Amino acid sequence: MRSQIVALSEKVPAKTPVISPLAPAAGFPALPVIEGAEFAAGEAGVRYRGRPDVMLARLAPGTTIAGVFTRSATRSAPVLDCEAKLAATPDPEAGAAIVVNSGNSNAFTGASGAEAVKAISAGLAEAAGVPEARIFTASTGVIGEPLPHERITAVLGDLTERLSPEALPMAARAIMTTDTFPKGAAAVIEVEGQPIRIAGIAKGSGMIAPDMATMLAYVFTDAKIAQPLLQRMLGKLSDETFNSITVDGDTSTSDTLILAATGKSEAPEITDLRSAAGRAFQEALRGVMLDLAQQVVKDGEGATKFVEVAVTGAASPADARKVAMAIANSPLVKTAVAGEDPNWGRIVMAIGKSGAKADRDLISIRFGDILVAEKGWVAESYAEEVGAAYMKREELAIRVDLGLGKGSSTVWTCDFTKRYIEINADYRS
Q: Which of 68, 220, 298, 425 could join 22 in a cystine, given CB atoms 3.0 to 4.6 angstroms apart?
């Protein structure tokens, strides 16, 4: 079956997207091997030809799993299945597995969606020796088309035979859809002289306004940590990272973030998030998650600018978040950024529509360190040509202080270009 799939792939080449100008200059990073985790990727021909479109991860007995998922009311069959399995908290001593396909989201597919998840889980349970209750699936791609799950189950045996601890970079490529580059990040810390390793991959380029995580992200560590603690940590850090990015204001039906801890590190178990070890691990994990989240923004469909929006001085953290997201999601702000136009009036507009408490005469606006507006008017020191020169940078910062309190929030976004329209107008062809 695998030779037939490869032959078909060779006849119908995949489209090769132009790599985002914001892609990491150093390319895909070196990822540490996570003991107790092994990976494989292959071609099933779900939608794409001539490229890997299915990834498999098998995790050793004792692995704890945490996850957060989209809150969309139309979330996909795989998301619903993952939520149910995590809520059931089965015995982690059975091991676990993750299987992900790109090209088809298995969302809004009725009863056939759940049947596809069941078929894939059953097939992988037989191939990899992992109970169905510990198999977590995900699908990403076109919404509303039945998933040809038989193409995936046909390659599960081959994927299982090719599992390798060093194949996580291949897995990163297999989960891409409109992404122009694979996304990976890693960290290594020491606790009592013993290393704890973290490695993660993500996919996402469009339909990014997460309400939990991003479209798909998988993070693996060899740390020893109980599931309730792992889940609490993941929920907190996802708000600071994946929930603080936006490309186009649209939340996916498939958003999935899973964190797996194999417990194979020789470092002591983390039992208290307030301990030195707990704080160090959280900081390292946050760094990996934020790196992945920001790579998603830098690969925003058609993006040419990476933008940090930082809001301070709000009456509350919730108000700061409202203002930051209103700016980051504004098509008028994002198109001005694309055109390198320092149109700060559009930022004023976004503040006003956000629903947050604001006082015109207390607001200050900056492009980076350049004071643009204050006291209800353009700053006396501001010169349009200085703002225009700043907007030519690839990475920009829009800073707003509301002058009302101590609430703050930082989010990350990108510009809107003609390329975004081209990609999405042609997405299903």
A: 298
